[in-house]
Amino acid sequence: MSLDIHNAAPCDGRKPVILVVDDDSNNLAVLRDCLTDFNYTVLMAEDGESTVSRADYARPDLIMLDIMMPGVDGYETCRRLKRQESTRDIPVIFMSALAETGHKVHGLEAGAVDYVTKPFQQEELLARVGVHLSIRDLNRRLKEANELLEARVEARTRDLAIANRVLEDEIAERQAAQEQLQEQAVILEEKFEELQLAQVALSTSEQKFRAIFDQTFQLIGLTTPEGLMLEANQTALAFCGASESEILNKPLWESPWWAHSGEQCERVRKAVQQAAAGEFVRFEATHQTPDGTTHYIDFSLKPVMDSAGKVVLLIPEGRDITSFKKLEEQLRQSQKMEAIGTLAGGVAHDFNNILTVIMGLGSILQIKLKDSATLRQYADDILVAADKAAMLTHSLLAFSRKQIMQSRPEKINAIVLTIDKLLRRVIGEDIELHCSLAPEELMIMADGSQIEQVLMNLTVNARDAMLRGGIISISTERLELTEGLLDTSLKPGSYARITVADTGCGMNTTTRERIFEPFFTTKEVGKGTGLGLSIVYGIIKQHGGEISVYSEVGKGTCFKIYLPLIEASETGRASYPVPQVAGGKETILLAEDNDGVRGFMVQALEDYGYRVIAAPDGEEALRKYRANNDRIQLLLLDVVMPKMNGQEVYDAIVQEGKRIPVLFSSGYTADIIEQKGIVGEVGFLAKPVTVQMLLTKVREVLDQR
Ligand SMILES: Nc1ncnc2c1ncn2[C@@H]1O[C@H](COP(=O)(O)OP(=O)(O)OP(=O)(O)O)[C@@H](O)[C@H]1O
Ligand SMILES: [Mg+2]
Question: Ligand 1: does its nearest atom lie under 6 Å from the Cβ of 454?
Fold first, then answer.
């Protein structure tokens, strides 16, 4: 921008106003004229005081200030102008005749913008005035621009502050929201964890219930009220060997558990109807395995109802009670046998006493009548008949396990070999006998002769079951039972098993259930007594063993005998001395409550040279002993007597300080003999007795003294 000094630059479109201050009116006039000519509006003042007020009032665009003035000088006036807000920005140009630099500096320090020296060079003055007005104009515009800018900045700052606040609010809101979100997230996480734990617990419990459901020995399922299978546990599936897909969504009554019997399917179908009507149904069902074995099932069907009492599910449940049934049957059987045994044993005992009298007196008759052939024959016949009767009672006692058992260690193979020849003779030619013996020795505690009798009875039965010939197999083996054997009451342990099998006619179930009963026979009258197996049963039981039978009609029969093994020790079978009948002269105290038996014994003993002091009961016997104790050399005491039994009499005598040989006699039970604590083989006489038996035993005991 170039400066036109001849024309005043308009300020805001108007003529610039210049306040000229000089105490010299001439100077004022000159300046006024000059400036007016150049298009300035000129105001004038002649002293410092009026200048300050005038400037405040008129607000000139420039002040031309004389320095040297009376009163307030130019410097002071300038300072006052600069102090006053309204006039501070008005540029001041000093005018002075003082041309030294010191004055100029002083003037500039007081706030002036320029300095012109008098007398003026018009051109210079106008130029300086023009410049400073321009500067002032520019300054003003700058200021305005600045103010505008500031205002804008302020406005913008305000806007920004507002925006900022809004933003801050928003941020705060967001932060709050975020915090809330975080809190929610934490809660959510906790909830999630809880849920996970609950899920784990649920799945554990589900697993547990699954395990119980599947692994329980009960057969369990679930059906709709219409009987459609929804679930079946593993036990139930395994029981009938079916897979889930074969069963699920099919009617319960059509499932393989009942497939063998249409009647049973129908029963289950009816049970479903009953249960669907809210009834609890329970009955005993059967199931047949593919190999034909029948299982008994305790079956029940239970309705499950909702809160309104409507049946929503059915629970079929089953329990295999086959082994219970077998045990029950076994128990029933053994109770029956026990009852029959007691009866048979009782009868046999009474018979023994009677037979002792018959046989004893019969044998005395036999001796006394040896000179008359006819009478002697009668006596012989009595004895033969009595012998048969004695065998019968003997069998009954064997069955009721009440016969005297001479137990000793026996080797089973040896027993089989001993009797083998005899068996072959018994069975005849069209039957083969196969023996297969265990490689090792099987030692048992047994009465060998009784085991022989068992084998004999079983073989004879087998022979009778094979009228057209066949094979009988006898085998022995060792058996280790780690757990009890089904069908028997055997405890775990080592056993010898003797098997006697035949290929004969076999038996039906009805027969098989009764074969061990005494006098049960299917043979013709006169052919069988029905005592053979009863004896076998009694003997085996008395030996602590078990016997079981398997039989099929038309195919054959197999008896299995289990006897407890003992540790093998080299004990051969004892040989018995052949009894020699001999009498003696000793005095014997005989206590026997049965008059007939006592009479026979007194007779027999006295016949053979003995002296006998007899008593009908224990107390009498003790009294008589005390009266004759120096003479008595043998006590012959019946075990079971009224008042005082044989053992008590003996104990009393021993307590009195005398040891004297004793021979106990009894027709009673082996159990009772054992209960009385009577042991030893020599001192026991089993009734019924013949004269020979009596004399042999008496001599044996006396000779052992
Ligand atoms: N091996 C077998 N095969 C088929 N049936 C048998 C066999 N053993 C026994 N029985 C049946 O058991 C029944 C009873 O047998 P048990 O030996 O007790 O008496 P028994 O043989 O009839 O007469 P006893 O033995 O007194 O001569 C027999 O009548 C027979 O019906
Ligand atoms: Mg028989």
Answer: no
494: tokens are 């080592």
Of 426, 459, 515, 561, which is best to mutate to test ligand 1, by the most ligand atoms within 8 angstroms of its C-beta?
515
Both 391 and 432 in one domain: the answer is no
Do 53 and 91 fall into the same domain? yes
Backbone phi, psi, residue 636, to 5°: -115, 100
pLDDT of 53: 92
**What's phi and psi for 294, nearest 5 deg?**
-95, 130
Residues 517 and 428 in one domain: yes
Residues 21 and 118 in one domain: yes
SS3 71: coil
- Encode burial over 173-183: b for 16+ CB neighbours within 10 A, e otherwise: eeeeeeeeeee
Please check whether residues 606 and 680 belong to one and the same domain.
yes
Q: What is the mean pLDDT of residues 158-174?
A: 86
Q: In ligand 1, which atom is closest to the CA atom of 504?
A: 3
Same-domain status, 623 and 556 = no
Q: Which of 464, 500, 527, 549 to mutate to test the pocket of ligand 1 (most atoms within 8 A of CB)?
A: 464
Report the predicted TM-score, pTM, of the whole model to 2 decimal places: 0.49
Say if residues 18 and 29 touch (Cβ distance below 8 Å).
no
Rounded to 5°, the CA angle 543-545-548 comes to: 135
- Cβ–Cβ < 8 Å for 54, 21: no
Write down the pLDDT at residue 670: 55
pLDDT the model gives residue 682? 44
Does residue 472 line the site of ligand 1, with CB under 6 A? Answer: no
Residue nearest to atom 30 of ligand 1 (CA): 522
Greater confidence (677 vs 167) lies with: 167
**pLDDT band at residue 165, thresholds of 50, 70 and 90?**
confident
Q: Is residue 22, in this structure, part of any structural domain at all?
A: yes
Q: Do 428 and 351 sit in the same domain of this protein?
A: no
Round the average pLDDT of the chain to a whole number and report it: 86
Regarding the beta carbon of 452 and ligand 1, being less than 6 Å apart is answered: no
Per residue in 378-412, pLDDT (tens digit) is 888 888 888 888 888 877 777 776 666 667 888 99
Ligand 1, atom 27, lies closest to the CA of 528
Give a yes or no: residue 637 inside a domain.
Answer: yes
Overall average pLDDT of the 241-262 stretch? 89
Q: Which atom of ligand 1 is nearest to the CA of 516?
A: 18
CB 550 within 8 A of CB 575: no
Tally of domains in the chain: 5
Q: How far is the CA of 399 from the centre of ligand 1 (A)?
A: 15
Q: How far is the CA of 480 from the centre of ligand 1 (A)?
A: 30
Q: Is 521 in the pocket of ligand 1 (CB under 6 A)?
A: yes
| pLDDT tens for each residue of 616-635 | 999 999 999 999 988 999 99
pLDDT of residue 522: 93
- Is the domain of 151 the same as that of 282? no
